[in-house]
Amino acid sequence: MKAFRPVRAWRAGRASVGDGAVTAAAGQGAAPLHQSASRDLLLLAAAGVAGLLLLMWALAWVTEASGTGSADAVDATTGTITLALSTEPPQLDSTRLTDLVSGRILGHVMEGLLRYDENNRIAPGVASRWEIGLTEATFHLREDARWSDGSPVTAHDFVYAWRTVLDPATASEYAFILHPIENGAAINRGEAPREELGATALDDRTLHVRLQHPTPHFEKLMAFATYNPIKEAFREGRQGRYGADAEDLLYNGPFVISSWVHGASLRMERNPHYWDQDRIHLNAIDYAYITTDVNAVLNLYKDGKVAIAGLNAETLEDALQRRWQLKRFVDGSVFFIEFNHRPERLTANLNLRRAIQLVTDPAELVYKVIKLPGTLPGESIFPVWLKGVHGAFRQEYPAPTHPVDIELAREHLARAATELDIAGAWPPLVFLSGDNPAANKQAEYFQEVYRARLGLEVKIDRQIFKQRLAKMTAGDFDMVLAGWGPDYEDPLTFGDLFASWNENNRGRYVNPALDSWVEVAQTSPAPRDRMEAFAEIQRIIHEDAVVLPNYESGSVYAQHPRLQGVVRRAVGTDPDFTQAYITGTGD
Amino acid sequence: MAAAALSFERAVAQPEAEVLARPSLSYWQDAWRRLQANRRALVSLYIVLALLAFTVVGPLLWRVDPSAQDLDQISAPPGADRSAEIVAPHVPWAGVTMPLAEGNRLAAEQLTAPAELALADPANTQAVRLQWQPVPGASGYRVHRNILHPAPDDALGLPLADVLQPGRVSFEDRLDIQPRTYYYSVSALDQDGDVAPAYATLQVVAKRVITGAEAVQRGLVETMEDAALGQRVRLRLHPFGTDYLGRDLLARLMHGARVSLFIGIVAPLVYVFVGVLYGSIAGFAGGRADQVLMRFADFVVALPFLLFMILFRILFRIEGGDDGIAPMMLAMVLLSWPAAARLVRGQILQIREEGYVGAARLLGAKTNYLVGRHMIPNTMGVILVTLTFAAPAAIFTEAFLSFIGMGVAPPTPSWGSMCNEGIKTMLTHPHELIFPAVFISITVLAFNLLGDGLRDALDARMRGRGGE
């Protein structure tokens, strides 16, 4: 049959050609073809749809099957809550702490001398009493503070931890936070042996600290995780693996890590040795999912698998349609565009920075692009929640503002072009940004703003966090989308960012006037003098266009209605489940 | 009988035997005729041509900058209402402050709902300004906004802000106000900052507005004089809607097609050409040379494409802000030619042994003649089919790589990167994903069906299949 077909067809073709009616024959031949083709297509489409439905059903079945057996997000009978973690902590050694996620976990499993309570006031932690003077401080440790192996937490554990942080061999990125302690900076630079640190254990339960210079915010520093204690015998026994795994840590906080499956899950359980058992209501906090995908977490929340889900501008509407009770939270961070001030870069030119500053409109960014409630248009690197002398700092010292002025901006740009000898088009500016959707959106928004309003070409360089940090440190950028979260509740945590000696001054801005104000803020004991200094820093940063504040970040999230007592705070452990409880049945 | 048979006459010349009774068809004419008979392939051909016109002619007719951001119409669906009223620019609002109401410290449960919740100014998309009467004993107020009525389950919706300044009984909302109905709810806070269960709700319909300066900047009116307050203007038309930054989807699809079709057509042209050259040399030379050449082709097949593309990116010093098209093309050309080379080599090997090639050789034909007269025309069908099948594969590769962020650099659009952006808003604004996805699907399908039809039309052994 097969061999026959072409022959017959060939004949038919010749015949029709012979009739001299090529098109007509083709048309006739096409009619049955068309019919069969459309029937084929219809069949194909039907099969495709059926296949797709089958696939969807199979997928639904698979996800359901894998989901069975896992408990509810909030389980009152076992006192367990289930949550999702955005990323896994790289490690949990408090001396090498840098990221927020590690800080959140450490806040639950460790306790420093002091801590923040549910109203964000300083409360006693391992220390039950303390006296802080101008240049020295004494902490009296409570008797019943225990490590999770039952041994007492002693003043020696703090001295050992602090010396380790400052030891240049540790290379701690947060060592600067211990510099107020006498000889802290010198030890960190390798100019003094670690034994010369001004922190001594008078006995097991008394810790005495001498300060390098008056440090008004020293009390608040004591709640920061880098000041946590570490038991020397345990850490030395782990041979460099301290903090790498659940069993490589010794805990003294309300919870202990009972299991840590890298990349998959992390589970915390109540610490039976913790001194303040009345404060803890939950038995376990189960971070059963580790994913950066906010949509995945939202779907888990819809299925009742996690107790908290963050929302973004895209998912808000869906949440409103579902009539969820939403919560809002201002996380205290400030985001800004940081310029590269290294002399070889174009952005070292003040007129160029001014021009860019004058066309940047944080209100438009926040209200039309970011669209998240709680997010405030940035006016200053000092966020609105910081306290001043009596009231809020920003009400006592309002941030200098400027209207968007495209004409004036173009004048500045023309001046910059003359100063930099640029004739014609500007070379493209490198705009370094993160690789998450929110950062992409902002970067593309700014790219178009600068193109449309100034005619500047901007290249967006998307990098993952680590790579972005490396490029920032190397100065491989003109502008970068950067942010800063507070380490302690004092304007200084933002105020010293652009001091010439600060490692986090990645744009390498150097201004002796600003440096001297930072020194005043660091050492002056009078609150009014300090606030005046911060106001001057605020003014310099605006006038010199050191950075362009974009926004103070906030977030909106949905929380399981039966989960209560979760503390959200800008400074310290966030979210804090230590005192959370489950309402409804049980508890 | 035999003798009679031997006596033959010289035949008379019959000129009519020399005349061709029917018009003869060349190979290509025949192929074209059969392609025309294949309705599916023909439609696909028209689609491909239409896409080329869409890319080349489209931007000349639809003169919209694909990277211009219309922030008044972010994620606007196709055919959205777009009339706006011209208003004065936004001025900061001091708000309403009233002397603190006399009252004792009250627990949240005892606080009443704010009375006389009303608009301080007409509500528009620039700002919604609310004010209300102070609640005795309240330390502040919390403002919620919802798109549905809060009753019956007290779903107040989005917590916008806490009003904590002493005596302040007003709030200005500027957060992404769309021209639609909102329900604002205000409840009092007690001294500890706990929220009262009682609340007042106000239904607000926001009107779409634009400032005169913005209208001039976006080219909606000629000059500021034309932009009288209260006048209505039509915002820019976006037939396919806009994306998450208010960029025109139609213009982006047209410009995105440029990248996709450029890669889809140029890359296969180059690597099929390389493959044909390589394959015909191998096939024609035969023997040891063929063995060596084809083993090298096998080796190239084993090289991973993605890895090489990343290596080329590094080699070209392609950073985040640069276009990744060049390394993508290079990797495609360097790694994709063996398929075409194998096909052509097989074809050449076969043709080489054909009788007519032997005959030509016997008659003293040179290599050039053999290749030009016999080999290439006879492999043309295979080459063309390979080309049409390579195009959708290349388009798909580009879309995939742009989707994972290794293709074009923003703000240049490509269909793949548009899909990547659209997928984030898939549930709320599906049009941002559907349009580029449909374009990719149609293009790939059209190229595939066209390739299918070409194969049927060009392959002699498939002749007549179309008539079945």
Could you report the average pLDDT of chain B, rounded to the nearest whole number?
83
What is the helix tally of chain B?
Answer: 14
Q: State the separation between the terminal residues of chain B, measured CA to CA.
A: 51 Å
Number of domains of chain B: 2
**C-alpha Rg of chain A (nearest Å):** 31 Å
Summarize the largest interface: chains and residue counts. A-B, 67 and 51 residues
For the largest sheet of chain B, list the strands in their spatial order: 5-4-7-8
Shape of chain B: elongated
CATH class of the largest domain in chain B: Mainly Alpha
Number of helices of chain A: 18
Order of helices and strands of chain B: HHHHHEEEEEEEEEHEHHHHHHHH
Mean pLDDT of chain A: 85
- Residue fraction in strands of chain A: 15-25%
* CATH H level, superfamily name of the largest domain in chain B: MetI-like
- Percent range of helical residues of chain B: 40-55%
The CATH topology annotation of the largest domain in chain B reads as MetI-like fold
Oligomeric assembly: heterodimer
The rounded distance between the terminal residues' Cα atoms of chain A is 81 Å
What are the segments of chain B in which pLDDT stays under 50 over at least 5 consecutive residues?
464-468
Rg value of chain B: 36 Å
Q: Tell me how many strands of chain A there are.
A: 20
Structure description:
Chain A is α+β, with helices and mostly antiparallel strands. Helices cover 36% and strands 19% of the residues of chain A. In chain A, the strands form 5 sheets. In chain A, strands 12, 13, 14, 15, 16, 17 and 18 form a 7-stranded mixed sheet that branches. In chain A, strands 1-2-11-10-9 form a 5-stranded mixed sheet, with helices on one face. Chain A has a 4-stranded antiparallel sheet with strand order 5-6-8-7, covered by helices on one side. In chain A, a hairpin with a 5-residue loop joins β3 and β4. Chain A is globular. By secondary structure, chain B is an alpha+beta fold. Chain B is 47% helix and 10% strand. Chain B contains 14 helices and 10 strands. The C terminus of chain B is likely disordered. Chains A and B meet through α1, α2, α9, β13 and α11 of A and α3 and β5 of B.
